[in-house]
Specification:
The complex is a heterodimer of chains A (434) and B (235). By secondary structure, chain A is mostly helical. Chain A contains 17 helices and six strands. Chain A is 65% helix and 6% strand. In chain A, strand 3, helix 15 and strand 4 form a beta-alpha-beta unit. With 235 residues, chain B is α/β, with parallel strands linked by helices. Classes of the chains: A mainly alpha (434), B alpha/beta (235).
Chain lengths: 434, 235
């Protein structure tokens, strides 16, 4: 059987969907707002109008323009895309078209895959405002670094697939579109609650919270491509598609559905457990913010002993966030035999009292132990070199990042995103509906 | 007529209520078999179980003494549900073209269906804008574009006026003469008597009788009775 007629049908159905047109209509102004605000702030930080300028090393297009502008896509994937996805199934269930679809040539998983392919294609169409923002940025004289830009786009694609997986599963399992929407949004709110609680509790909850869509996307916004994040996002997406396949077929028994669901959840859990052990990651940021200097990395890779770090800082302590950002995140990428224990509990409870040794960070290697309270990269590295017996490398200048100031206004952007884009979408909708 | 499929022991429960209880009958090659019974008899449930769209608690479907699974049946039968509005925002022309492309149906087949189903006048209309009868004719056309040797049709004349009903009956008879087997679920007993070669009488989830009109007349001991009288006598 040719797959093309099925793909063509799904594509046509997508363009007949009001929720898809609403997504297209809204994504322009959303991206535009993020882009225009970001360009304005970037220009001020660059010293536009002879105002005070920030240090140029701190001015990166990834933080200054790309992440804010493309943040609109996270919003769209959370609140707009689920309705588009749910409609692809709910409309057929409601209209009776599902009874015909189930009988068409090919198995149900190939039909679900066709829907996923088409949704991905639709999502690529919605990237048009993002591409316009990038083009405008370049026209204004802005700099872009291809690896970190493409990494961010890849992150948003995985984010979209994650949203699609959850929404497809909800639409297949729930009785109707409204229930599916409630379930999907409930899961989203649940992940926000998890992140909020994990910030104060740490431990396993914090590990779990690192897999939420927002946390996962943050990696890409920081220019990091982590195997564990990629695998986790793909596994959850595929699990959603698999659940949709199991539940959508009306001719399946409850026993089959229960067994299939258990199998999918077990397989997903095993894959996620495996993914949590995957260490491979790539720092694609131009300023190497996720890595030590090349010289330090080369020196640290010489260490072949395990390093145990015991941190006596509460999860909500900002020093811990600094330490994670400046040291631990980079250390994990370089030392495969790194174990980190967080031994302090939260300090915000009514009956919490300060722990002994609070604020200490202990480093243990080869039977030796050193304590250091500092969370500054250079100080910590000095301690690690002392423990390992490796001499600290000479600092080189080739890692120096000069930054990319851009004192330019977002000329014409408001017209494009707030007027031309919505009018173009409205016109296209009228053409398609005629 | 030689046997095409043998259906045995179809049982379906919803909670403690039996919608179907040990339903069995045979389907012969090239016949128009009528499944008749009042509302709630289990006709739609039976068709959906046969099509694999509803899981039966028990059922056996054989062809030439070999038990068939629903995967094997998928190439054999196609079920046209009643009261559906598939792909409502698409046009009739698109839907017909979709099935043509999917099944590689020769163009001549669709041309042959345009006149008897009066599709030419509604080709450019959106499916969700059609009347009940127009939707019924569109869905019927979709089913007839498939290559499946057995079609299950749920209430094929529902929503059609008298003239359209007669035209569709003639079309279905023509399909049967061209070796397509049809199982029609009909609650209008008079229509069943006009178009069906054999009948299966279903009442409260059980098969009450099966056979040609003369066989059912003999069974009911009503030699000149119509389908309605036979049904009332036997149920």
């Amino acid at each position: 059987m040719s797959y093309l007629p099925l793909l063509a049908k799904e594509w046509r159905e997508l363009w007949a969907s009001r929720s898809f047109w609403l997504l297209l209509l809204m994504i322009g102004p959303l991206v535009g707002h993020g882009f225009i605000t970001a360009v304005g702030l970037y220009a001020e930080a660059s010293g536009i109008g002879r105002g005070p300028a920030a240090l140029p090393q701190g001015l990166t297009p990834l933080d200054g323009m790309l992440a804010p502008a493309f943040g609109a896509y996270d919003l769209a994937a959370t609140f707009l895309l689920p309705f588009v996805v749910i409609r692809t199934i709910a409309a057929e269930k409601q209209s009776g078209g599902l009874k015909l679809l189930l009988q068409l040539p090919g198995n149900l998983s190939s039909k679900i895959f066709a829907k996923v392919l088409v949704l991905t294609g639709g999502w690529l169409v919605t990237l048009a405002p993002g591409v316009i923002a990038i083009v405008l940025w370049k026209l204004y004289g802005g700099h872009l670094y291809a690896p970190e830009t493409l990494n961010l786009l890849f992150g948003h694609l995985l984010r979209m697939l994650l949203s699609a997986g959850l929404a497809l599963a909800a639409a297949a399992i729930a009785e109707n579109a409204a229930s599916a929407a409630i379930v999907t949004l409930g899961i989203t709110v649940g992940t926000w609650a998890l992140e909020y609680v994990a910030a104060y509790r740490g431990g396993f909850l914090q590990q779990l919270a690192s897999y939420t869509p927002t946390a996962a996307l943050r990696n890409f916004e920081q220019g990091l491509l982590r195997t564990t994040t990629m695998i986790a996002m793909l596994v959850i997406s595929v699990a959603g598609f698999a659940l949709a396949t199991i539940w959508l077929h009306t001719g399946r028994t409850w026993r089959y559905r229960a067994a299939g669901t258990a199998l999918v959840l077990l397989a997903a859990s095993l894959f996620l457990l495996g993914a949590s052990r995957a260490r491979a990651s790539w720092d694609l940021s131009e300023n190497r913010r996720n890595s030590f200097s090349r010289a330090d990395e080369a020196a640290l890779r010489q260490i072949n002993q395990p390093l145990r770090v015991t941190v006596v800082l509460a999860p909500e302590d900002p020093r811990l966030a600094d330490y994670e950002q400046n040291v631990l995140r980079k250390l994990r990428r370089v030392l495969p035999q790194l174990d980190v224990d967080y031994v302090a509990s939260g300090r915000t409870g009514l009956f919490e009292k300060p722990e002994d040794h609070y604020g200490e960070i202990w480093y243990e290697m080869g039977g030796q132990k050193i304590m250091e309270r500092s969370t500054i990269e250079e100080v910590v590295l000095e301690q690690i070199y002392k423990l390992s017996g490796i001499s600290a490398p000479q600092k080189l200048d080739d890692d120096a990042f000069s930054g990319y100031p851009l004192a330019a206004r977002a000329h014409g952007a408001a017209w494009i995103f707030y007027a031309i884009w919505p009018l173009a979408i409205a016109f296209a909708w009228w053409l398609v509906r005629r | 007529m030689n046997e095409f499929l043998q259906v045995e022991g179809v049982t379906k429960r919803f909670g403690s209520r039996f919608a179907l209880k040990d339903v069995g009958f045979s389907i012969h090659h090239g016949e128009v078999l009528g499944l008749i019974g009042p509302n709630g008899a289990g006709k739609t449930t039976l068709l959906e179980c046969l099509a694999g769209l509803m899981s039966a608690d028990a059922e056996v479907i054989r062809s030439a003494q070999q038990v068939l699974t629903h995967s094997a049946l998928k190439d054999t039968l196609f079920y046209l549900p009643d009261a559906i509005v598939p792909w409502g925002e698409q046009t009739v022309k698109w839907a017909l073209g979709f099935f043509e492309g999917l099944y590689g149906t020769p163009k001549q087949k669709l041309s042959d269906l345009l006149a008897p189903l009066r599709l030419a006048e509604i080709l450019k209309s959106r499916i969700d804008s059609l009347s009940k009868g127009e939707r019924k004719r569109t869905v019927l056309a979709l089913g007839l574009l498939t290559p499946h040797p057995l079609l299950l049709l749920d209430e094929p004349f529902d929503g059609l006026d008298l003239r359209q009903t007669r035209e569709v009956m003639a079309l279905l008879k023509s399909e049967a003469r061209n070796n397509r087997t049809l199982l029609l679920s009909i609650h209008q007993l008079a229509d069943a008597g006009r178009v069906c070669d054999r009948l299966v009488l279903l009442s409260a989830g059980k098969v009450v009788a099966e056979g040609t009109l003369p066989e059912l007349q003999a069974r009911a001991n009503l030699p000149d009775a119509g389908v309605e009288e036979i049904f009332l006598a036997l149920t």
